[in-house]
């Protein structure tokens, strides 16, 4: 990716949102472009936090080994996402980041990035907003795990996955390989079998179209309704 195209793509992200030209130039000047092939790891859970990465092109799967030793998918990072903002003030990465397709990033050494936020309130504000959004997302997921039924959890996770890795078409929202049903099951905190059974039922109802390497949401309104049912009228 050419430098000009790379910079233009990066500046469409939340990190660069409404920054003055001087701060934008300083951020770009301090960054290093990097390329990752599918399967390459950007960082491992527990590694010392050395870099922050801005996804410019491609997709990155964020996974974590939980207390039971199981690998869970936390989210799919798309272009525009700052990965991993949780490492900004932590000595080690709390999760593993793996490219799942050809991926281009901008990388900043953590120390240099911290210095930039200290020098620029505008950059610091954007980082705080990004961290706040991620915190709200994780709290929402925790609520879903404990307060929603199976169908609601799958629908909510499907909506989240469609926002992170979906492509809008005339038929609906396509979610294609390398994003998998295993990712969906992991994000919903359910077994692969439970998710597959539910998707099969939804396919018969015309809500989704499920294939070996593709899942299409055909009725986004109905899936949204399942995820967040409207209160019954008295």
Automatic annotation (TrEMBL):
* Transmembrane parts of this sequence: none
Q: What keywords were assigned to this record?
A: DNA-binding, Transcription, Transcription regulation
Q: Which residues form the HTH crp-type domain?
A: 148-221
* InterPro entries (UniProt xref): cNMP-bd_dom, cNMP-bd_dom_sf, Env_Response_Regulators, HTH_CRP, RmlC-like_jellyroll, WH-like_DNA-bd_sf, WH_DNA-bd_sf
- Please give the SUPFAM superfamilies that the UniProt record associates with this protein: cAMP-binding domain-like, Winged helix' DNA-binding domain
Could you say which residues form the signal peptide? none
Cellular component per GO?
cytosol
What is the name of this protein?
Answer: Crp/Fnr family transcriptional regulator
- This protein's species is Rhodopseudomonas pentothenatexigens
Q: What is the lineage of its organism?
A: Bacteria, Pseudomonadati, Pseudomonadota, Alphaproteobacteria, Hyphomicrobiales
